[in-house]
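In this section we walk through a basic example: taking a raw amino acid sequence and producing a predicted 3D structure, encoded as discrete structure tokens. The instruction is simple. Fold the sequence below.
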Amino acid sequence: MSDAVRLNSTIYVGGLENAVNEKLLADAFLPFGQIVNVTLPKPDLPSSKEPHRGFGYIEFEVAGDAKEALDNMDQSEFFGRVIKVAAAKPQKDSNQGLGTKTAVWETEGWIAKHGGVSQEDRLATQQAQRAKAPGDPMASLDTDIAGPYPE
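The resulting token sequence is shown next.
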């Protein structure tokens, strides 16, 4: 099965209670079609006492079954919680996007895509430089009226 076909037949299930395990999740979605795989990602921290991160993925054998499960189970109640069911998104590369240790503008191709400095920023910089023309800083003050007025 290609990655595109697998992605179309995989759904995301969020808002899961800690008591839910892979078997219970599979049993709840079994009426919609043959299930190939159920995954409940573990917490990132090894010291965490949580059995999973509160969401999971269910891969169906047929993409139509996944769509039917999504349509019927989204916003339904499961173990006392309202669950969110959506189409699964492709997993991001660990070197891209939020959560990476690299600034977004340092990633390859970001400056090429976003064009570096915009025309508006260039004009604002030029105007600011013209406004800072060197000269007498007191020139803008009206020194003729300073002090007591002559009579």
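Looking at the output, two observations stand out. The chain is about 30% helix and 15% strand. The longest strand covers residues 55-60. In the next section we compare this with other chains.
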